[in-house]
Specification:
The chain is an alpha+beta fold. The protein contains six helices and 19 strands. It is globular, with a radius of gyration of 22 Å. Residues about 1-10 have low confidence and may be disordered.
Length: about 280
């Protein structure tokens, strides 16, 4: 979230900005297009409103407010209403995803896998690039932004059977398998859990795998949500000692199961996305 401030003192109010990043990726997980959607809210008065953004191809997607752009500054002619705008970015993402496919134990490209049959494994790996170095208890420690990655895929039962997931859950309704995985890349390193008693009790996932018996491999759209608020929601950022950290990790472990069990809204959204993807392609 970037800074937003009124240019005129008379226009000052509790203005905030919500920012969502949408990433189109190919079958291997490599980003192909990044679209950023910004919502300036809490605008009560008309006047000039200064925003800071590095986006290109900026456009107002809802209202009639106009703007001028000078480098990283966008000055909006506010009309007392919320402003919704979008733009594109060529910046590297703070967290990336790599998807690797295997057929009968051998790696295979997704293009070559289409139409094949056999034992298939799909491995999702997440890498956290958002790291800073901090001094904790006199030692230099690398701390990562605590992203939680939630990936969901819908697999047709005509093509996929015996579906299993590592660091995830599988829900089947007779027509489709809904597979949801959760990973938290960089969290174990940030908490320095390796080679500790706590680390041996809590396996914080950094990847997600799907295995299945497949006939005529076909795969539709998958979606991944990246969220950086998980630790604060479950109290891990307030853990002051080892006992508190252990309790917080238990809460996080339970919450991860709830994320998998209660991802109905995400699944419904993916079903809509799959249905609409054909129209989008046309």
């Amino acid at each position: 979230v970037m800074c937003v401030m009124p240019v005129n003192a008379a226009a000052e109010s509790e203005i905030s900005k919500d920012e969502t990043v949408y990433v189109n990726a190919d079958a291997s997980g490599k980003q192909t297009k990044v679209t950023v959607s910004d919502w300036l809210k809490g605008i009560e008065n008309s006047g000039s409103l200064s925003d800071v953004s590095s986006l290109d191809e900026v456009k107002n997607v809802k209202g009639e407010e106009t703007f001028t752009k000078n480098g990283s500054e966008i000055v909006w002619n506010a009309e007392g209403e919320d402003i919704y705008y979008q733009g594109t970015s060529d910046k590297n993402l703070p967290v990336s995803m790599k998807v690797t496919y295997y057929l009968d134990g051998k790696e295979i490209s997704p293009k070559k896998l289409v139409g094949k049959s056999g034992k298939v494994k799909i491995r999702y790996e997440y890498e956290n690039h958002s790291a800073v170095t901090k001094t904790i208890n006199g030692k230099q420690t690398t701390v990562y932004t605590p992203f939680t990655m939630i990936t969901a895929a819908i697999l047709n039962t005509d093509n996929f059977s015996n579906v299993k997931a590592t660091n995830g859950k599988v829900i089947s309704d007779g027509n489709k398998h809904i597979v949801i995985g959760v990973a938290m890349p960089g969290l174990a390193d940030s908490l320095n859990l390796k080679n500790t008693s706590i680390g041996s009790n809590f396996d914080i996932p950094e990847d997600f795998e799907i295995t299945a018996d497949v006939e005529d491999f076909q795969m539709t759209v998958t979606a991944t949500v990246a969220n950086s608020d998980t630790l604060s929601e479950f109290g891990l950022d307030d853990a002051g000692d080892l006992s508190e950290l252990t309790d917080s990790l238990k809460d996080l472990e339970n919450a991860t199961d709830k994320l998998c069990d209660g991802s109905g809204d995400l699944v419904k959204g993916i079903e809509k996305l799959v249905t609409a993807s054909g129209k989008l392609k046309s």
